[in-house]
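Worked example 3. Consider a protein that binds pyridoxal-5'-phosphate.
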Amino acid sequence: MFNCLNKKQNTIFNQHNILKLVKKYSSPLWIYDANIILKNIRKLRQFDVIRFAQKACSNIHILRLFRENGVKIDAVSLGEIERGLISGYNSINQGIIFTADVIDFLTLKKIKRYRIPVNVGSIDMLHQIGEVSPGHHIWLRINPKFGHGHNKKTNTGGEHSKHGIWDISLTIPLIKKYNFKLIGLHMHIGSGVDYSYLERACEEMVKQVLCFNFDIQMISTGGGLTIPYKLNERSFDIKKYFTLWNEARKKISSHLNHVVQLEIEPGRFLVAESGILVSEVRSVKKTSSRLFVLVNAGFNDLIRPVMYGSYHHISVISGDGRVLNEENTKETVVGGPLCESGDIFTQNSQGDIEVRMLPRVKPGDYLVFHDTGAYGASMSSNYNSRPLIPEILFEDGHFRVIRRRQTMEELLRLETHCV
Ligand SMILES: *Cc1c(COP(=O)(O)O)cnc(C)c1O
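Given these inputs, the predicted complex is written out as C-alpha cells:
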C-alpha cells in the first residue's frame, strides 16, 4: 500500500515508471502488474478449479495470462464468450462457463456450437437451452435466499435479488425432460465476504444437495472475496474461506459417495490490486469551503466511486520534479472533467462529498488511483464522448500496451457509417 506520495519505489508502480509511461502514452491510462495477478492466483491453489470472473477485467491479454497459468474463466455475455475464445479458451474441461439469468438467441447458438456449459440462473433459460441444445451441460445457480454485498447494488442473494433460481426443485423435471447433464451447483452470495454469511451459504449448499439428491461433480463458491482498499483494512482470510467450503464439499462428497470438486470464482480478488489509474491534474480551484483538484480522468473511466461510493487510495506524483510536502496536507476533493456534478472520486455511497488529505498540487502533477485493476477499465464508458483510455501491462520485465487509446474516429464510426 501507498502513502499519499507515491514513494513505493520497490514496486513497478513507482514514480520513474509512471512518469515514463505517461510521457510515452500520455494520460489518463491504466497500468497493470502481471506479477501481482500471478501472486494472487497462487493464493488460491488449494481449490480444485480457479475460475476468473472476467467481468472484473476482461482485456484479452489478461485473459491469456490467466489461461497460461491454469485459471479458467466465467463469461456473462456473448461478448465475454468471444473474449474467452479469442484468448485461447475452449470448452475442453469447461474452460469457459457462461453464467446468466437470461440468454438470447445468438448466445444460444454460440453455447451450442462451442459446447460451452451454462450456469443457469432462471427456469426460462432451461426451456430455452433445452429446445436448442438438448443434453447440454449445465450448472444451476442457486439463490441462497439471503445475500451480502459491499454495497446494496452488489448484493446477489435473497428475495430482492434477480440472480439465481429460487426454487431449485422446479429444475428437476426439466433436467429430465431435456436430458441435461448437471455438472454442479453454484452460489455467489455477493461481493464483500462476511464470514457468518459464508457459513450460511455453505450450509445452504449442503442442504440443497442433500434435499434434492442432485448427483453433481462440482460445487462453485462464486466470488465476492474482498481486498484491502484502505490502508487499515486487513487481507481476506483465504484459509478460513477454504476451510468452510472444504467442509461443505466433504459432506456433499460423502453423501454422494464420490469426490466432488471445489471451484472458486473470484473477479476482484485476482486483479484489483494489480492495477492503477494514472491521471493528470488539470485544475486546482477553491470555493468558500472546499479545495477541488480536478484531473483528466472521470467516472467514464473509473465509475466505482460514483456508483458505489467505493474508496480508492490516491497518491500524488509531482510533474516537474519538485519535492511535494507530505507534512503539509490539505482537505481535498478530487473530481474529474465530466460535465456532471457527481463526477467526484471522493464521495461516499450516499453521494456525500468526502475529502482526502493530499499535499498541495498544481496542474501538471499526477494523481494515481490505486487498486483499480478490478471493475476499472471493464466498467468504462464513452460518456461525454470521451474515448476509452490505454491499458499497459508489465510482464516478463517490460511494459507493453494491451489496449491502445480509442480514437475519436472509431467512436464516431458507428454513427458516420450507420448503414
Ligand atoms: C461478478 C461475479 C463474480 C465475481 O465477483 P467478485 O466480487 O469480483 O469476486 C463471480 N461470479 C459471478 C457469477 C459473478 O457475477
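Take a moment to read the result before moving on. The chain has two domains: 15-29+272-413, 45-265. The domain at 15-29+272-413 is CATH 2.40.37.10 (Lyase, Ornithine Decarboxylase; Chain A, domain 1).
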